[in-house]
Design a protein that fits this description.
- The complex is a heterodimer of chains A (about 60) and B (about 190).
- With about 60 residues, chain A is an all-alpha fold.
- Chain A has three helices and no strands.
- Chain A starts with a helix and ends with a helix.
- Chain B has about 190 residues and is mainly α.
- Chain B has helices at about 1-10, 15-25, 30-50, 65-80, 85-100, 115-145, 155-165, 165-185.
- The longest helix of chain B is centred in the C-terminal third of the chain and has 30 residues, at about 115-145.
- The chains are: A mainly alpha (about 60), B mainly alpha (about 190).
- Chains A and B meet through α1, α2 and α3 of A and α3, α5, α6, α7 and α8 of B.
Chain lengths: ~60, ~190
Amino acid sequence: MIPIIEYSLAILGGVVLWLWGRFRPEQIAPLGDLVDRMMHHRNTRLAVVVVWWWLGWHFFTV
Amino acid sequence: MKPFKSFMSGMNPWLPVFLTTFLFHVLRGAFGDAIIFGLACAILILDWKKAFPWHMPKRPHLNKWLVSGVMLVAAAVLFFSDRGGWQDIILLLALAPIAIALTYYRDHGPKPSATNVMAKTRGLWVTIAITMAVCELFAYIWANVYKDDKSFPTISVLVNPILESPYGRSIFLVLWMLIGVGMLGIWRKKK
């Protein structure tokens, strides 16, 4: 039960940050801007895409 | 010291993270995941040492209809096949080189939006990501120690029942692909 509460709080935190960035961009940067910045360099793009693909592999084929 | 420094120069900073993940999967006996992260390390090393003779084009922008069509076909494959069937494996293996190829575009200019707000936002998102990862790790450890993944479920254990359903699988696949397309920004005009 404890992990479920922890996951839920983390997801809730993510939703709050996402909404906060959407409606108060002067306080919290919108998620799209953060992703743009994160994906600016190929090193990070490669790493993020590998992790993203692995998540798909992990959930859909295992 | 100087030859070592020059050898290490330009290393992808994610390489140590991937090497640690590779070792973690080896230690826990998840050899499939270990192979994936081992290959990822090899890709990062080959990229770092410029072993790929890539021509760096501009950021690709794919037609929305084409991307939507691929998503629809992929969702249909997962809907009509058994979970973990050969169709799913072929689909995921086909998507890997496409996704990696789509990361190969030229980096342009300085990083956008290097502001205090951006630094604060990044810190908050990193905190959430690390919190999630630590919770998952401890759930995994306690589930193994107490042999009880009902009281200490990992995220995989929680989403498995959803992914067993063809509908759940298809919806998850579309969400997963939308996240990938969104991160790569391949159907969005650059600001």
